[in-house]
Amino acid sequence: MTSADAICALAGLAGGLVGWTLLEYAIHFWLGHLPRGRILTSREHLAHHANILYFTPFALKVRGAIPVLSAVLLGVGAALGAWAGVGATIGVAAGWTLYEVVHQSIHVNGPRSAWSRWAARHHLDHHFRNPRANHGVTTPLWDLLFGTHVPVERVRVPAGALRSLPWLGRALAASEAPPFLADYEVVGPGGSVRVRR
Length: 197
Ligand SMILES: [Zn+2]
Ligand SMILES: [Zn+2]
Fold this sequence. Notes:
- By secondary structure, the protein is mainly α.
- It has a domain at 3-112.
- Helix content is 61%, strand content 4%.
- The chain has helices at residues 3-33, 40-50, 58-80, 82-108, 114-128, 141-146, 166-173, and strands spanning 155-158, 184-187.
- A two-stranded parallel sheet has the order 1-2.
- Helix 1 (3-33) packs across helix 4 (82-108), helix 3 (58-80) packs antiparallel against helix 4 and helix 4 crosses helix 5.
- The radius of gyration is 19 Å and the shape is elongated.
- The mean pLDDT is 93.
- Bound molecules: zinc ion (ZN) (2 copies).
- One zinc ion (ZN) is lined by residues 48, 52, 103, 107, 123, 127.
């Protein structure tokens, strides 16, 4: 591997990471929401909306990722050279893996950092209030560019959804409320705010 190859691979890696964020938006909005259940990706995503603790099985995700990663490898490799193709494929795969970890962690563990506090707020508002907005989970970049970004200050969580957000239940019951609790209010069936803050 020459130094020129290494530069191509690193540039491909950076491009792959940025490219993933567009794929994240496209898979979620264009393939998950717009087809309204007419394709498997959409049915799987709508099942996640129906039950926010349902995640597409790992084997099915891998089956979907193989053609995407193969297309990146062959497409970028043909256009910009083999090392750029390898770097871009690793970049997309790394971004995809990070997204999967962040998305599941938002639902299962709740906010753990300033970034995941923002991500949890926007993603849960997408679930509970406006599924036509905030499709990016790891970044608002493409929502801002495509006009689907809606800033979220507070998420109104239906009381019935609390059982699917154990971390929020724990935060509400804690004697010392974590700072992220200011981002949430639990709303009862009648529309009244039931819980403090
Ligand atoms: Zn989700
Ligand atoms: Zn969605």
